[in-house]
Amino acid sequence: MRTCRYCEERKGKRPCPALGAVCSRCCGAHRGREIDCPEDCAYLRPACGGTGGALARVQEELVAFAQDEAIAERAAEAFFGSEVEAEPWETPLFLGYLAFGHVDGEGRRAVERFLDARGPELPADQLAALGHLLGVRVSLFEIQEVRRDRGLLLLDLLGDEEVYVHERAATRGLAAGELLFGWVVRLADHYELTGAGCPVPIEAVTAVRDALSSETARLRAALTDARADVLLGRAVPAARRALREVLSELPGLADEPAPCQAVYEAPDPDLVRARLEGHREVRACPGGTRYTWTGAGEGELAIPVELELRTVRLSLTAFSRERLERGKRFVERLLGGAIRHRFDLPRRGPTTPAADTSASVATVPGSSPAAALDAFSQEVARRVAAQAAASRSRRRDERARRRRRASLRAGDRHRLPPLPHEALDAIVPGFGATARKEAERLRRTAASEDPPNLSPEELADLAGVREFLVETGVRDLRRGKPREAAYADVDFLAHHLYYALHHELHRRKTFWVDGSLAWMLLRTDLDVPGACLELPFPCCAFAFADEGTLALAESLLLSEPDCRCRGRPLELVTVYVLRAPLSPAAASAGAVSLHLCLLFDDGSDDWPYLLTRDLFVLPESRLDAILDSHLPDVRVGELDPVFLAPEMKKLIHLVLNAVLYSTSAHLSPVLLAPERPATRRRKRSGGGAVSGPSEPLRSRESVFFLPGRIDVGQVRQLQELERDESGRRLMKRFQVRGHWRRSSPRYKEQRLLWVRPHWKGPDLAAVVEREYRLRP
């Protein structure tokens, strides 16, 4: 006989799919918790015909028995008081109190009276289940961990004890950090939910706990010989009243949690990740981007704060403002200068324990026990099914997009998605024609080969532009669009026309940045003065289709509640950069204004999402300070938080490095023509559909391809070697980050030189010149 693989002491009689062979004691005590059991394990959950299956049947009969008793009216009066109608969330809680909490004149509960009256008639398995129900316990529980289709790890906030319950349906709708108030029952070697209970919002935790404590103390003074679990069951009406009072004072109740959030900038995410994973109070969640911190002081509730590290953004989410502040103090002590606070997001409203009223019972007498006890689980299952279907659809779309991104270049041709000005031309009739017509007219009337750029006011004065905007607005009104929406569309269309006209005016110069080059430019310091920042053309565009930049942009849009492509995978990020006119005084001082239009396209039929950013560049300014610059007349305190987001700063960092790279000494761009012109046009929202082939849309314009000369390989392994929880780790060979080096005054070539990332040996002399490939 083999030895148990868990305790290595007793005989391993049970075949364990996770460990090989374990003893029955270790299997019963640790399965689904310390032992990572697969879902198909025969020992993970009792068979339906065993005690677990009999529990639901005997519990339904118990509730029906308790409702038929004359004492049920006194129980309802004690539970509801003067209220004549039950809230949906109160019904399962009352049925649990009726069965396990309320006592008659002799101090007996309904479960005990049911055993005396019906016990001899019950089958053996139901009688065994009823025996377990005699020891049912009620408490306020915090969900510590959710194991999908397996169970929940609960922390008893009154007894400071962890309880692991086997559960399937509820695991698909609950999350760590949520709170439950209700009864659990211990079977032979595990706990299960009885279904009698309700979720509790964080705002009501203190009130419910205080009500239970005070009522239990009062009952204990009168009934000195009563068990603690019986006293808690009898205190449930007091907790119900406290919960109802708190909920009545909370305006705007919603069905979903509404957390508070704090957002930090994390310029070095590898260092932040290492320090978080090295702290004993921080627990990493699957996926590598989410963490939970459950630290609490003496006597405080261990309610977790969720941390998410997404690209260069560290977000803290909590279910109360006080808990959020505690989490902020914790991460600021732990991470110090590795993060910088950006902004806090206001709460959207409190949590409610409401269930679907159509599946609940409005009044207590005559209600269905099965429907009442299972209402919450059924609603969770319905919501999860809809979410799962939407998730599968999103995953299919994302896999298709990933396949398209992997084959964007074919020799000397490209397969880029349509650029934003092409997409708008396909969506809005006359958009591209207006830009081309006005650009041609400006070139004819200009005194030089490169016409000067216009200000937004000068653009609005162009007759062709005014005519186009008026016609578009009138057409929308005739189609029945509300006046406010039509005016808003015309205003946004003018912003889109501003970059499209200038791009056409300067012969449509577009640079497509290779994925490996974008990866390196994001890690290249901006340590040169503003005088070195010169655009290759008065207006040009930089297109990014690599995974890293798209993930950065997707993270940025998560803070934009009105963005239509929020939470959806992007296909292309395009940044139009043009030199905007300045006042004579600012221009005489050598200042330069760069107008950046950031366009985010998810490949749908909607307009690309537009964000604009203006940079004020002085000759002596360092480029890293230019990232936070604004025009002199802009009040920074009144800016939208998206302009202060760490992802926005990182995207601007990437764009400025791409501008420097496009004018650097060793640039060898490759001109790529489109593989074939797009033959299908998009349809405008609300307009008629345009038929065409099913192939994905592609750009019809030639682009300059900026290749990555050094493709650094094994990025994840390098990041793990480079960092530990205290910072950098000494390596025999280390990687030199990419940086800009200005030439000596005696050199003939004075343009900026980009020093590529490379390896240096122990003597700091030997530079490895070989190329490395970037592997996902």
Written account of the structure:
With 776 residues, the protein is an alpha+beta fold. It has five domains: 1-44; 45-250 and 359-384, no CATH class; 260-345, Alpha-Beta Plaits; 409-674 and 697-716, no CATH class; 717-768, no CATH class. It is built from 23 helices and 29 strands. The strands form seven sheets. Strands 14-15-21-22-16-17-18-19-20 form a nine-stranded mixed β-sheet, sandwiched between helices. Strands 9-10-11-12-8-13 form a six-stranded antiparallel β-sheet. α7 packs antiparallel against α9. The chain is elongated, with a radius of gyration of 33 Å.
Key terms for this structure?
alpha+beta; Alpha-Beta Plaits; disordered C terminus; 5 domains; elongated; nine-stranded mixed β-sheet; 776 residues
